[in-house]
Design brief:
Layout: H1 4-8, H2 10-30, H3 37-43, H4 48-67, H5 71-101, H6 106-114, H7 117-121, H8 127-148, H9 152-170, H10 172-182, H11 185-199, H12 202-228, H13 234-262, H14 266-277, H15 279-296, H16 304-331, H17 333-339
Helix pairs in contact: 2-4, 2-13, 2-14, 2-15, 4-8, 4-11, 4-13, 5-6, 5-8, 5-15, 9-10, 9-11, 11-12, 12-13, 15-16, 16-17
């Protein structure tokens, strides 16, 4: 398995992840009636795109800390690249749809706007960002543990799995609120471990690659178990599926570079790189547009042609706005970063 290609095609992989998430949200969550049941079942697995983001993010953060391990600089970069854009993009959505239309209190508006509401109320609108911000907060410590001993991450992963089981058994109501996020933490840690494999060589790189391979196969088995036994114990099967999705994410991170490299798909790769560059903006904006359409009920009683047109307009608008926001970020936020 050519794990080295994952680093080379990192932006392209993020582009693919963003695309399958958009497809899943619009064709499964918004208008599921557009697809035959068999196709819908397949498209529904597009939620592994977030696992891909987490795996690639873990790898990228290891790269970043290896170049400059000062926590202050690390946090400032994440604030500029993730937190500020998220707050700017989220503000009109939560103010208009939350406070003005839904009648949320100002306190609830602040919780939603900052993403804290995932952890307090189980609001999942932008759960990925709510999770990744927490992971950013703790990553300098994770990196320090990893540099001291790579296999310390197994201790962290074991603690995460134990916490998931305890919450599932002892606090099911709170577990239901946050399970979509906490079950994805291990794939982030595996991504960080893989990031180290890219940097190191020799026997250690070989061992980490073996670990990632074993992790992938074990998680794929858990994912399949979760799918097969969904009708027998729904909650347990969802937990196994969520945890196991990390294996599918690693597999996808292997398949995409292999296809792009093997078939010399230069133009497609360039397009995916561009989508990958706006993946955060696209993730946020398309979710807000999709939720607005759902809240307003647009197209619910319409035919397939109208629903497809709504999706086409929504996706086009999301892409245009994502590129526009990314451009403004590069002109103002990133420009200030370079000048400071």
């Amino acid at each position: 398995m050519k794990y080295s290609l994952i680093s080379k095609y990192r932006s392209s992989i993020m582009g693919v992840a963003a695309i399958i998430i958009v497809i899943m949200h619009y064709f499964v969550e918004l208008y599921p009636s557009l697809l035959p049941s068999a196709v819908e079942t397949l498209i529904k697995r597009g939620n592994i795109g977030t696992d891909v983001f987490l795996f690639v993010s873990g790898m990228g953060l290891f790269f970043s800390m290896s170049k400059d391990n000062r926590p202050k600089e690390f946090y400032l970069k994440r604030i500029r690249r993730v937190i500020l854009p998220t707050l700017l993009i989220s503000l009109p959505y939560w103010f208009i749809l939350g406070m003005l239309i839904s009648g949320d209190s100002f306190g609830m508006f602040l919780l939603n706007w900052t993403g804290i509401s995932l952890w307090t109320h189980g609001i999942r609108v932008i759960w990925y960002v709510s999770l990744i911000v927490v992971l950013y907060l703790f990553y300098p410590l994770i990196y320090k543990l990893q540099k001291r001993n790579t296999y310390m991450l197994f201790v962290v992963m074991a603690a995460i799995y134990a916490a998931i089981v305890v919450l599932f058994v002892c606090c099911p109501s709170y577990y239901d609120k946050i399970e979509i996020a906490v079950t994805r933490i291990p794939v982030f840690l595996i991504g960080s471990m893989f990031g180290e494999a890219v940097f190191c060589g020799g026997e250690k790189k070989r061992k980490i690659n073996i670990i990632v391979t074993v992790y992938m196969f074990i998680m794929l088995v858990l994912m399949l178990i979760g799918i097969v036994f969904q009708s027998k114990d729904h909650d347990l099967s969802v937990m196994l599926y969520r945890i196991g999705s990390g294996g599918a994410a690693v597999l996808l991170c292997l398949i995409v570079p292999a296809v792009l490299e093997g078939f010399k798909l230069g133009k497609i790769n360039n397009a995916l790189v561009k989508v990958g560059a706006i993946s955060l903006e696209l993730y946020l904006i398309h979710v807000f547009i999709k939720n607005t359409i759902s809240k307003m009920g647009w197209g619910n009683n319409s035919g397939s042609a109208v629903k497809l047109m709504i999706i086409a307009v929504a996706v086009t608008l999301a892409v245009i706005l994502s590129f526009a926001v990314s451009y403004l970020e590069s002109r103002f936020i990133n420009k200030k970063q370079q000048s400071s």
